[in-house]
Amino acid sequence: MPQPVEEIPVGQGRVAMFKAVVSGDPAPTVTWTRNKGDTSDPEQYKPRYDERTREHVLEIVNVQVEQADTYKCFATNQFGKAMCTASLSVFAVGFKKKSKIVKKRKEKPKKEGEIDPKFWEVMLSSKKSDYERICHEFGVTDYRWMLKQLNLKKKEKEVEQAKVVENVENMKQIEVKTSGRAEFEFDMKLKDTNSQIYLYKDGEMLHYGDGTDDSSKHNMKKSGDKYKFSINNLGLNDGGLYQVDVEDVNIISTTLAIPNVEFDGMLKDAKVVEGQDAVFEGVFSGPVPQITWCANDISVEHGDKYNITVSEDKLTHKLVVKNCKKEDKGVYTAIAGIKSSRATLAVDGNEGADDLARRLAEEQARLQREKDEAARRGKGTDGRGDGGDGADGRGDGADGRGDGADGRGGAADGRGDGTDGHGGFGGDGCGGDATGKYGQGDGKVHFASGLTDKNALRGKPAELVCKLNTDKFDGVWYKDGNKLISNDGVVISKDGCTHKLIIQNCKDSDAGLYHFEVNGCKTEAMVRVGDLPEFDPDALQKFSNPVIVKAGQSASFKMSFPPQASLEIKWFKNGLELLDGGSVKVVKESNHSRLQIKDCLRSDTGQIKIQLKNPFGSIEALSSLIVLDRPGPPRGPLEVNENTSSVLELKWNPPKDDGGSEVTNYIIERQQVGQNTWKRVGDISANHLTFRDRNVSLGKRYIYRIYAENLEGVSEAMETEKIMAGSLMFPGPPGTPKVVSAFKNCINLTWTPPEKDGGNKILGYQLEKRKKDTNQWVTLNPLKDPIQDLKYAVKDVSEGSEYEFRVTAINMSGPGEPSAPSMMVCAKNPNMKPHFKDPEDFMVVRSGNSIRIKINYEASPPPDITWLKNGEPISPWNKIIHADGTCTLVIPSSKYSDSGVYTIVAKNSIGQASFDIEVRVTDEPKPPGPVVLEQVVYGKVIITWSPSPDHNKDDRLHYMVEEYNSNTRIWRRIADHLLCTTYTTSIQPGQEYHFRVYAKNDMGFSDPSKSPTWGVNINKVPMSSTVSAVVNLERPPSILVPLKLHTPPKGYQCYMTCAVRGCPSPYIAWYHDGICINSHNNYYITNTSGVCSMYILRVQPEDSGEYKVVAVNPFGRAECSSTLKVKGMTAAVFI
């Protein structure tokens, strides 16, 4: 539970909210109560739990004044109960000032993060000793900043006050007096005696009297320059901020807190001896930050004379009156708002102590006189005289007392002791000498050991024992001067020289002074009767339950017991005493003691013992502290049960300390040596202490971390040493590298794999080179990037230099032995006939653009290059650019006349090569001529147009026809790749048609040529009302437009088109070199209104040959043919 909350002020009609954070295992049950009423009404009190903030909340809606009270939150589970309290004060909301004051008193809205303005008003009128308390109440933590700001505000306030007053001093904050009246006062000298003085409470102006009328609630009494304000008949609603203003200037602000609490423990009367401390203690039903203490109706403060303390829960307030004098006696009062408690203090004089000192001085003088007399009589330096005829050397002084010369003597009643501490109590005529033996008056009897004081337990037997030097004498026992016999509840016995007095059942009446007397010698002892300390039974039962906390939390133990005199309290942990200080706090009160251990560690787990001890014995109570924490790391030594190329099995021991709760599982992480990342590879239950890692690689080294986990968290790791998977088995040497080819900038090598792979897969190879006349082998690839193939192109060579090479195989264990070196090879190009690399044999260039024919070749030695056009040398105005393995012909601005076949000829001493490139210089075609529409057959329209001016000079030119009708209202392509100048299409009656024709070539489209409108009543074939004669339209097939010669480059598209007429429509068959291709998938064949088309998407050399179209109907047959020639390579188009 959190620390108790101080008083919470809430405006009437608003919402009050209490919040508590509760922890415990198992989860506690939380309930809310109040001192003066219940919280069962769900309409007014709404408890809930906030999952997000993990807070238990009590919400009070529409708060009223009668709900002001102390509220308590209880958290309970099977291990105990915790409580937290907070006070709620309710004040009325609203301001009722005069108009000129309202502006001054209007509160500025408090912005988030800013300090409440009331804080500064209170601080400006407070004493320095109250600064810390006020800062705590308003939540101000930066003390240094506060002081700096306060000094600035004081200067500002002094400037304001100087307008209406000459000075203000001796300000006393408001406090409640023993009479039940609250008062505050100050000295003030007004500049204008007619200035108005106003009193406010929480911003509301109050009317006050002059103090002559006892019925007045608020009063101001003026005596000279002293102004005293008072509030009579205090109630809970009188709490708040009181302010005194002169005109519009604030003079003093003070806060009156009236907590709604009761005294759970009233003050008790105290009686002390002069010089001792007196303690008064008050216990409240709810937390109270500060109360008023009064001595004889005068308030007192913490200082040299008075020590005022408050417990952490602010429930217990204590006043200690130090070094009491007679003038300190009187009535002491504790005041908390409208509640008070009184007690009296009595101080006794110290006459007894003075008498004792006087008697002690007289006795010391008498003993010194006796010592001097004994020294005069005795002759031995150790205190033993020969005493005339005393053979044993004991002195025989006239009064029977003998003392050693070392100054040890008896007391005034004749008691003496020896150096060894065994001297008893001598009577008249018997005294102890320096050896501890007892002297004798008559030289015959003395005490070998005397009586010792006895603390006897009530109801138990007690025994007094003394021993004489002889068994010939019987002595007499006395109690408080009265002779004792065996039938007086005591048993008197003698056993040789030992004399015993046994009290069979000790009672209070048995306490007193006992002495044993024999033959003029006596010994005395004091018997005291009492009881052992005792614990409160209920507290003892609770104390025996173990306290379980988590690491970092605080553990508290409390033991109650009845108040007992001379009681010594000690706390122990694992047999060692705990003292107050550091993380240990020990509180010892008259009726209870508390132990708190803060910030508990796991090592604090152990036995807790409290011991109560008085003169009659001691008792102990045991409890135990269990601190739950993360477990310790798993213990070694780590064992590797299995180690193969693919599996590592590890074994470890459980942690020495499980953290107070059982280990639930183990977490295993792994890092491969040479890498920086850790990977989680296992999470196993606590009953397994082994782990098999099946994802390891032979020859790789790994480090493992093993963690233990319980409910409190994860332990520190146990980290292993480096562990290698399996044993290293390296591959054998590969075959000797062989040179496949050598060039000036590259040497191509190949080799064979090793005969022995070391039992593992070959991951790759590492290649090395050595330059002639050097001894250094240089790696060409790192081990982390092995060569996967059995060949490699070495490009890191210098032209003309000689090299040899060797190769090494790599497996999981690492690199093996290198191969034997290859033969020396020189980095230079071999002699070869010129060879062209992937040339293009066709290109189209837009007229006016430059022609750039770039040819890549290989040849050694470098060849001579010649360019020809159509078999003739090119113009000297053309530019030829030579580069390494490249030759480019550049014609800056092309013309139609630059079209032709260009030939490159490369020749060296080894041979010659040539290559032809067809270049076509062209431009967008010009549009076709006028378009004419004609209808010969109903429902058909023949579209005819004049050829484009470029028709004859561009053998790749063709036409495209588009249609637009009044129904669809869009342009639609109806024919393409037409080599003829006519096309027949179908039309629908009742619609208007528009047609347009484009010329197309390799450069693109021409502008369209548009037809006239073909409409409903335009250009129709006249229909006679009566049929005068039968028209016969049947005719044999005929070729209107034959096929044309086509020479497309390889990979280019090709369209072949012809026009056929016949009635009925003839059957059309296409043939390639005499083979019908109508059903062949490589050809797309169509026949639309007599226009027969065949389309090849990408022509290949095998598509070359003769193509023939055959049209057949019942009346005859017609055919036409043409040749398709495919030019070698793919063409390029330059625009």
TrEMBL record:
InterPro entries membership: FN3_dom, FN3_sf, Ig-like_dom, Ig-like_dom_sf, Ig-like_fold, Ig_I-set, Ig_sub, Ig_sub2
Organism: Onychostoma macrolepis
Record key words, sorted: Cytoplasm, Immunoglobulin domain, Repeat
Name this protein carries in UniProt: Immunoglobulin-like and fibronectin type III domain-containing protein 1
Localisation per UniProt entry: Cytoplasm
UniProt region (Disordered), positions on chain: 365-424
Entry's Gene Ontology BP terms: sarcomere organization
Superkingdom in the source lineage: Eukaryota
Pfam families recorded: fn3, I-set, THB
Primary residence: cytoplasm
Segments forming domain Ig-like: 2-89, 259-346, 834-922, 1036-1127
N-terminal signal peptide: none
Keyword Cytoplasm recorded: yes
Compositionally biased intervals (Basic and acidic residues): 365-406
Domain Fibronectin type-III: from-to ranges: 633-728, 733-830, 927-1019
GO CC, one annotated term: M band
